[in-house]
Design goal:
By secondary structure, the protein is α/β, with parallel strands linked by helices. It is built from eight helices and 14 strands.
Length: about 325
């Protein structure tokens, strides 16, 4: 297992974002054998969550915001991690002081991995350009992952040569009701897709406890702070399968090159069809039954860049 620790000044912005970006890259590409975490060079923000503007930037770009509590790096981390990656020169100086130097050459800057040796990740605490800093983080993480997977052992898919099966839950239109039987169904899934009209932000927070979240805003989410900032359309990859998700099918772009599955909601009616080898899936509403319809969701089994199975789940109209 290769272990990476991202470090910035307070561990509530750049390093926390790098951890979440890098972990999502690993999940989406089905890469195992690599683990990532983050820490601070100082004690100023210990215990604090991700800085809200950075959390907003992550959500807008489709990243799952995991539960987070800032911690300071310690001398023991030098032995524990294989790569210790700072965001700027001040971080590197603090890291060398804490670790007593860098005898094994483990310390680097994140932008070194993007071919920009010595360049720093801009600190959005001062620039206020959170999207700009996040783009720099993405470039650094892409370069780091490319370097690690090119080493020939690290980063191979888990579960052997054929990769492993991945279970993904597909929900939509919960409308402020996250049913307990729905929660029970997502327990065996590592990824949860929500096609909008979430309405209650705490429901999305709970779902994050069970798997990686991909969520788009619905028309009813525009009235909820924390949901209105979600992307209207997301493109992402899970286990080699490429997805496009939006709330309303009318908003699906014309160009779907490379997309293997289109996920939509809004109608509260389950539909599943294959058109030109591409899955079009609406999981229906898994909140309250609407207009005489059923309460439904879907589960996908994914492996080696293919959709192995689509399952329709039907719930009783009233909660058990």
């Amino acid at each position: 297992m290769i272990k990476i620790l991202f470090i910035c000044h307070g561990n509530i912005c750049r390093s926390a974002a790098a951890k979440m970006v890098f972990r999502q890259m690993l999940r989406e590409r089905g890469i195992g054998g690599i683990a990532a975490d983050s820490a601070a060079a100082t004690r100023e923000e210990i215990g604090n969550d991700v800085y809200p503007p950075m959390k907003k930037a992550l959500r807008v770009r489709g990243y799952a915001c995991e539960p987070h509590a800032a911690r300071q790096t310690t001398r023991a981390d030098y032995a524990r991690y294989d790569f210790l990656i700072g965001m700027d020169g001040e971080n590197l100086a603090d890291m060398r002081r804490i670790y007593g130097g860098d005898p094994e050459g483990k310390i680097s800057l994140l932008r070194d991995w993007a071919g920009e040796a010595g360049m720093e990740i801009d600190d959005p605490w001062y620039t206020r350009d959170f999207q700009g800093s996040l783009r720099q983080i993405e470039e650094g993480c892409e370069g780091l992952l490319k370097a690690l997977t090119a080493k020939g052992g690290a980063g191979k898919p888990e579960g052997g040569a054929g990769g492993r099966e991945v279970q993904a839950a597909v929900l939509s239109d919960t409308h402020g009701l996250l049913r307990r039987d729905v929660v029970a169904e997502v327990q065996d899934c590592t990824h949860i897709l929500h096609a909008g009209d979430i309405v209650r932000e705490t429901d999305l927070d709970e779902l994050r406890l069970y798997g990686s979240i991909y969520a788009v805003r619905g028309n009813n989410d525009l009235w909820t702070e924390g949901l209105r900032d979600l992307a209207g359309t997301l493109r992402f990859e899970i286990a080699g399968v490429s997805f496009l998700m939006t709330h309303d099918r009318r908003d699906v772009p014309r160009s779907l090159e490379g997309v293997q599955a289109v996920i939509c909601g809004h109608t509260h009616r389950y539909s599943e069809e294959w058109l030109d080898g591409r899955l079009w899936l609406n999981p229906g509403s898994c909140g309250r039954a609407r207009w005489g319809g059923e309460v439904t969701m879907a589960k996908l089994t994914l492996r080696d860049g293919k959709i192995q199975r689509v399952r329709r789940i039907v719930f009783p109209e009233s909660e058990p």
